[in-house]
Specification:
Serine Threonine Protein Phosphatase 5, Tetratricopeptide repeat; 72% helix; disordered N terminus; Pentatricopeptide repeat-containing protein; RNA binding; transmembrane helix; TPR-like_helical_dom_sf; repeat
């Protein structure tokens, strides 16, 4: 880091030189052996000067040239002054490292330098280094470490060294346990404190409130008042936060009334805590009444309200309140900005999200990890992957940052990029969490990449990672979609705990492979395990019956869904049932089901029935159904084409021409057919222009309804390796096109 040094503004140059001469005189005329004398004089001199960084560096240089740089007392003073002058412990660490014979006093100085500048983890690391070096901490060391680092091993060290009897140490340990969120240990220490002050009561109450343990929290609250301690606004706010965390609506309202009667509602902190409570309850009307009732809004109250709006899905109100804050000149913090950006992501308001991005840059909070993560998520979920990648590339990353970028790729169906980013994450020696692994396994499932999925599974086993329900379910899904149904079932059976998602995945896996009866057997096992099925469960079952043609079983499950479990079928369930009935030739039953639907059928439902009519050559019903389908989805070119084909097959050429004319009038264009072609290990130097034209021709002429299930996987090392494959295929397609053209000319 480059520093620009300036002279002390409070001293004129001549005065500064005189002061410097005095300091040099102290160093020159004091015997080094007379350590107490030089320590006292230098300490007095440094403490009486208004030191800037430049003057401190000058004094430090004189100390070095005079041979006093290894003096522990002087070094500790320099460490303290550097920490306060630079607002950081960088130079302090250099001074500490230059001293060879360190003592506990010097260790305390460097720990304090880091602690006073917010370096809690660095303070803890230095404390452990101090212990490894064989130094015993004293009563000055432990209060700093306990206050900055929430590590439970420190308490045992206090007891081991026999310095746990101090009331100050006990109070600080109580504060530490309150921040750790361990109620039992906090209460034990609380009972050990002889003279309990307001801070002690507040610490133990805050622990119970964080966990929502309101019986214990209120009991301590009444005991505190019996002991003669008057609660302040922080204690009252802890109580309200506790009610919010426990979701005790009626008790929270009752305490609000008690607070009004006893005049506890003083201060902004209590007001914000009540806002938090009512937002957690989902009672936005009461929260808004409290919020709007204040004559003056503060940053904290606005932020609480924004968070409340977002948690219950009122994204538009969240954005509107943020705009009001800006109009009133109220500055938003990073947490509020993250919330508003997430609201823009949910609403798809990318333009507003860009404005918030600019606002974060102007406010110098765009480098905050949480803000960067929310921006990556917003751009990624709205298909702006290039911008999302730029932010990701420049951002300071944590595990959430990596997960957000991987999720963005998966959301946009860029599964290969998601897996590549996961590999890059591992190459940087970062440890993925269960959410990362679930997403990567999902990408492997979509690509049917068994090899990569097995590598991820092996990584999990080699690292001894805990396989929770979500991760185990992702493995089951991956193996099933990659064709390893037996291995998928083995993993499913080995799961100790299964939720409804796990059962749904196994049911859909059997249905996907055409084993409808096995899917129904899994459903029966699910019922015996007392796991409540949901709508997705029955959708997977109906889909399995549809693929296997089990009409009666499908009818039974469709009725049981409604009568036994009280689940209302949605459009997907009806479309699946209509398709099941239609494929089996029960067209009348299918039409009756559509007409009796309690919800308006969409194009998908009518389209399923229309396809069945064409399959069974029921053109009269098909024409009637096609008109409903076009009315439901007027932009779908497929319905117009199917209606035209039915008119043409029935010899009703005028009606067919009218449909074509209607397509033109409505601006509906027939989409070109396309098909995916997966090519593996292509050598760029071996692909010629003629070869690329052949690939383009293949993609243009291939119809997706006939060839979408074909997966080309060839090692292309020469022209002949794929020319022999493509040329016969293209010739066949050209012959089919010629035959169709000749048939049309004959008509």
């Amino acid at each position: 880091m480059n520093y620009i040094f300036h002279s002390n503004p409070t001293l004129k140059p001549s005065t500064f030189m005189l002061t410097l001469k005095r300091f040099h005189s102290i160093l020159s005329h004091t015997s080094f052996s007379d350590s107490n004398s030089i320590n006292h004089k230098i300490s007095f001199f440094l403490s009486t000067q208004n030191l800037t960084l430049q003057s401190l560096l000058t004094y430090h240089a004189l100390i070095i040239t005079s041979g006093n740089s290894h003096n522990v007392f002087i070094a500790s003073k320099l460490i303290s002054h550097y920490a306060s002058s630079l607002k950081g412990p960088t130079f302090s660490a250099k001074v500490f490292g230059s001293v060879h014979d360190k003592d506990t006093f010097l260790w305390n100085s460097i720990i304090k330098a880091h602690f006073s500048n917010g370096g809690c983890s660095d303070s803890l690391n230095l404390f452990f280094q101090m212990r490894v070096a064989g130094f015993v901490p004293n009563h000055f060391t432990l209060p700093m470490v306990v206050a900055s680092c929430a590590d439970l091993c420190l308490h045992s060290l206090v007891l081991k060294n026999g310095i746990g009897c101090s009331e100050v140490v006990k109070s600080l340990l109580l504060s530490m346990y309150s921040k750790c969120g361990t109620p039992l240990e906090a209460y034990f220490l609380f009972s050990e404190v002889m003279s309990k002050d307001l801070l002690s009561w507040m610490s133990v109450i805050s622990v119970y409130s964080r966990f929502g343990l309101m019986d214990e929290c209120l009991s301590l609250f009444w005991e505190m008042q019996i002991a003669g301690i008057v609660p302040d606004e922080i204690v009252i706010s802890c109580i309200f936060h506790g009610f919010g965390n426990s979701l005790c609506v009626y008790s929270g309202k009752a305490f609000h009334g008690l607070s009004i009667r006893r005049n506890y509602l003083f201060g902004e902190i209590v007001h914000n805590a009540m806002l938090f409570m009512y937002c957690k309850f989902g009672l936005l009307n009461l929260a808004e009444k409290l919020f709007r009732g204040r004559l003056e809004w503060t940053k904290e109250s606005c932020n609480s309200m924004i968070s409340g709006y977002y948690k219950i899905g009122h994204n538009a109100k969240c954005i509107d309140l943020f705009r009001e804050m800006q109009c009133l000149g109220i500055e938003a913090n990073s947490e509020s900005l993250v919330t508003v950006i997430s609201s823009c992501c949910q609403l798809g308001a990318t333009h507003l999200g860009r404005s918030l991005h600019c606002y974060s840059i102007k406010s110098s909070i765009d480098k905050t990890i949480s803000v960067s993560n929310s921006l990556i998520d917003m751009y990624g979920k709205n298909s702006h992957l290039t911008i999302a990648w730029r932010i990701f590339f420049r951002a300071q990353r944590d595990i959430v940052t990596w997960n957000t970028m991987i999720s963005s790729y998966i959301h946009n169906a860029n599964f290969a990029e998601a897996i590549a980013l996961f590999d890059e994450m591992l190459s940087e020696n970062l440890n993925p969490n269960s959410a990362t692994l679930v997403m990567v396994l999902s990408a492997c499932s979509h690509l049917a990449s068994l090899e990569k999925g097995e590598k991820v599974h092996l990584y999990i086993m080699e690292r001894g990672l805990e396989i929770n329900v979500s991760l185990a379910t992702a493995l089951v899904d991956m193996y099933a979609k990659c064709g390893k149904l037996e291995q998928s079932r083995e993993l499913f059976d080995s799961m100790r705990e299964k939720d409804v998602v796990s059962w749904n995945v196994m049911i859909s896996s059997y249905g996907m492979h055409g084993h409808a009866k096995s899917a129904i057997d899994i459903f029966r096992d699910m019922e015996h395990s007392h796991v409540q099925p949901n709508q997705l469960t029955f959708l997977a079952l109906l889909s399995a019956c549809n693929h296997s043609g089990l009409v009666e079983e499908g009818k039974y499950l469709f009725n049981r869904m409604q009568k036994t479990y009280g689940l209302k079928p949605d459009l997907k369930h009806y479309a699946c049932m209509v398709d099941l009935l239609g494929r089996s030739g029960n067209l009348q039953d299918a039409e009756t089901l559509v007409l009796s639907m309690p919800i308006s059928p969409d194009g998908g439902v009518w389209g399923s029935l229309l396809s069945a009519c064409i399959k069974h050559h029921e053109y009269d019903m098909g024409v009637r159904v096609a008109k409903h389908a076009i009315e439901s989805d007027p932009d779908n070119d497929g319905y117009y084409i199917m209606l035209t084909n039915m008119y043409s097959s029935s010899g009703r050429w005028d009606e067919a021409e009218n449909v074509r004319r209607m397509m033109k009038e409505r601006g509906v264009d027939k989409g070109a057919g396309w098909s995916g072609l997966k090519v593996a290990m292509v050598s760029p130097g071996l692909v010629l222009l003629s070869d690329l034209l052949m690939f383009a021709t293949l993609i243009w002429f291939t119809r997706p309804d006939q060839y979408s299930n074909i997966k080309w996987r060839r090692k292309l090392t020469s022209k002949g390796s794929y020319r022999d494959i493509l040329l016969p295929f293209l010739q066949t397609r050209k012959n089919e096109i010629k035959q169709r053209e000749s048939m049309r000319s004959e008509v």
